[in-house]
Prior knowledge:
This protein folds into 2 domains: 99 residues, Translation factors (Elongation Factor Tu (Ef-tu), domain 3, Beta Barrel); 154 residues, Nucleotide-binding domain of ferredoxin-NADP reductase (FNR) module (Rossmann fold, 3-Layer(aba) Sandwich). It is 21% helix and 30% strand. The protein contains 8 helices and 12 strands.
Amino acid sequence: MKPAERMSASDKASVETITSIHRWSASLFSFRTTRAANFEFTPGQFSRLGLDSGSDIVWRAYSIASAPQDAELEYFAVLVPQGVFSPLLKRIRPGDPILTERASHGFMTATRFTQPGNDLWMLATGTGLGPFLSILQDPQVWHKYHNLILVHGVRHASDLVYQDLLRQLQQHPPPAARARLHLLQSTTGANQPSAPNRLHGRITNLLLDGRLEALAGIAISAADSHVMLCGNPDMITETREILHARGLRPNRRAVPGNFLAENYW
């Protein structure tokens, strides 16, 4: 099959165009694409993207980082040297085609929580930040909660991306918003610079010793908290155990609970 035939639109996918690329570091970058007129998603969901390898189309899932009302779609990615998709992604340039499945996917959305809660905790490692960027750009979540607490854990301070957008959201929330946004960071590498609202250590250790909640000034509890986890599978597994020990339960369709998780590996 010729490349043009492999990258053609179908009932399953539309051919979109890379419109811009922002490189945060040698391995971290964001890119934006055009958006099909009928493409809909709920903040927190992901899209399946396809690139031509020269012999076939390689597909991978990426959480959507843009606001639901944006005309374009944005994705936050890390290049994995041993990956199959990363070498293709590394070569993209503005103007290049990319396939996007017509359906969005995923259940890690704030709309999944049905039981009462005042506080929404979003715990992310690395590029697990992506879906929370979209959620925080959704006015509805600002009207639903009293506190939005974003925790981003990385190895190096240079990996703390999207700082301008997050500060803008914190300082200029949507009209009539009742929530306050708390931005907390953690680094695990040695000799990392200190900063306000930044801790040193793994998110799980910061939960166990109480430093994370002390910095936020908000306690995680079964009565008040909804918790979303996205990123390293080890972080998610350990955090689930910590939350279980505190009486919080996973949120399921048939049994409402306190937390949702999505591995970002």
